[in-house]
Write a structure and sequence with these properties.
single chain; mainly alpha; Recoverin, domain 1; EF-hand-dom_pair; signal; EF_hand_dom
Length: 81
């Protein structure tokens, strides 16, 4: 039973990262592989500076694919405020 749960959890994490990568490519207007606050605001107009900062785990001022996946999994990104 634990093996099934671990496999399902790993599959969801991989799917989440893949989705984040695909979603990022449509938002990454300058093609650098990272998302700025302004790039994210196009897709998530209610994004706050606080949420962006919470997602930016390495504090470099940009969101990478891993940070995007974690933010999405945590439900930090919403379009409805």
């Amino acid at each position: 039973m634990k093996r099934i749960i671990l496999t399902a959890t790993a599959s969801l994490a991989i799917a989440g990262a893949a989705f984040a990568q695909a979603d990022m490519s449509t938002m990454d207007s300058d093609g650098d592989g990272m998302l700025t606050m302004n790039e994210l605001l196009v897709a998530y107009p209610t994004l706050t500076e606080e949420t962006f900062t919470a997602m930016d785990a390495n504090e470099d001022g940009m969101i990478d694919a891993d940070e995007m996946a974690v933010g999405m999994d945590a439900g930090l990104l919403t379009t409805d405020g």
